[in-house]
Amino acid sequence: MPSGGEEKWVLPAHDKLPKGKKLMLIILDGWGEQIADQFNAIAVATTPIMDHLKTTAPERWRLLKAHGPAVGLPTEDDMGNSEVGHNALGAGRIFKQGAALVDMALETGSIYEGEGFKYLKEAQPNGTLHLLGLLSDGGVHSRYNQLQALLKGCADQGFKKIRVHVLTDGRDVREGSSLDYVTTLEHDLEELRKRGVDARIASGGGRMAVTMDRYENDWGVVKRGWDAQVLGEAPHQFKSCLEALKTLKENDPKLNDQYYPPFVIVDDEGKPVGPIVDGDALITFNFRADRMVMAAKAFEFEDFDKFDRVRVPKIKYAGMLEYDAEIKLPKHYLVAPPHIGETSGEYLVHNGVRTFACSETVKFGHVTFVWNGNRSGQFSETLEEYVEIPSDQGISFNVKPEMKAIAIAEKACEALHSGKWDQVRVNLPNGDMVGHTGDLDATIVGCTVVDKAIQLMLEATEKVGGIFLITADHGNAEDMVKRNSKTGEPMKDKKGNYQILTAHTCAPVPIAIGGPGLLKGAQFRTDLPTAGLANVAATFINLLGFEAPKDYEPSLIEVVE
């Protein structure tokens, strides 16, 4: 049980919605609302349950904003993502998120004045500064303009030797765009060299093959990064990053930017130009936490047994942000993350609400850790249970697009029928994870299976006389083609093929409520047209029979006579 004065945690009873109704809370990952054309995997998929909810009870179905300022991101052009989405869903308030915080720190120069950067400068004058992260403008994990500013700022701060370890994207940005990003990076590094800074790319690889695994799904991904970045060892060696990308793509035309194998840049004598060694400094410049935590553990933990690191350099390491506040990882960081406390999970535990949460590995952390304000563990060992179903390993998600949706639904039904839990919370990852592969047909299959999983959970809700709430964290599967920014028409490449979109979107997401336990007059309010994900927490707290905390975004529901 969390500590603190109990009085501040007490939630008054709702004046109209009763306590005691079981709640099934379903998060559809990557499930937005968009033009219902052939590139909308959700519209093409067979989804009778979601279609029924939308068409038969319009007063209990609506759209929510899931991008930009509604989830704490800087502008309306910033697409949502699973981390900021689940933060907003679980916390009930809007917090400035990674990208906005980093932008502010770079703009004001405060990033160079904090303890984190001062710690890095202890590697001067002889240590090399290494920058490791996703080369992308996607704004989900990183942004290229931030890397540009950081490169210039670090040079201004006296670092004379800089090495960049590139992770290519093709997921949050257009597939094939990595060549453009690397070309721009090479130009920026050339400008630094003109200033007398020895600045080069040292290694690279695709984000899904190198370094950026999460939730300890596959430590082999992190090991491949470690071998290239620290040991200077990889199956491929090239004189430049551009040569690496072009050659690897020529050898395998179907190779996606996300899956470039690890490679090392070498000099004329075949020696790596920038392995991380004793006395160096390292910044992991991704601002999003989930796909940096594992690498941070490898660089920071002395007691580490996930793979043989062979050589552990004594370096000054800092993350762009603190990636895990609970375990203080990493110890040093450049920008302080938002403090997200007093989340819905913590309030519900203090009010005796019993919660069961479940997803498969790739999204388990979102429906628990991220939901709880980036806090590890449970608030209560007796009032909460978190169950992780292992995700498929060693294959791309389009190979088995069904993923574990049915298994998650079955666990949720079992939990609800047990009578032990007041709230059952799940995340169904298919729309996001399969959508990111760019395989439209597979994503359609994934969305069809999600609807079948929803059916199972709604049937269980019906049997226990409960209530359901279904929503999503951001868009993805609803639009899988790149569109003309002015006309909205699908775009084709020079060969006449449609340009596949693998990124998240700025589309709104649905929310639906229902079930036999829902009061007859309960419906969505019509006076919150710009409501977003942060309004959901107050909504499900109401459905559980409580008034929401006063500082939460307003509930979406009202009860009419």
TrEMBL record:
It comes from the Eukaryota. Its cofactor is Mn(2+). Residues 102-324 form the BPG-independent PGAM N-terminal domain. The lineage of its organism: Eukaryota, Viridiplantae, Streptophyta, Embryophyta, Bryophyta. Residues 21-547 form the Metalloenzyme domain. Transmembrane segments: none annotated. This is phosphoglycerate mutase (2,3-diphosphoglycerate-independent). Belongs to the BPG-independent phosphoglycerate mutase family. Pathway: Carbohydrate degradation; glycolysis; pyruvate from D-glyceraldehyde 3-phosphate: step 3/5. Pfam families: iPGM_N, Metalloenzyme. It catalyses: (2R)-2-phosphoglycerate = (2R)-3-phosphoglycerate. Its EC number is 5.4.2.12. Keywords: Glycolysis, Isomerase, Manganese, Metal-binding. It comes from Sphagnum troendelagicum.
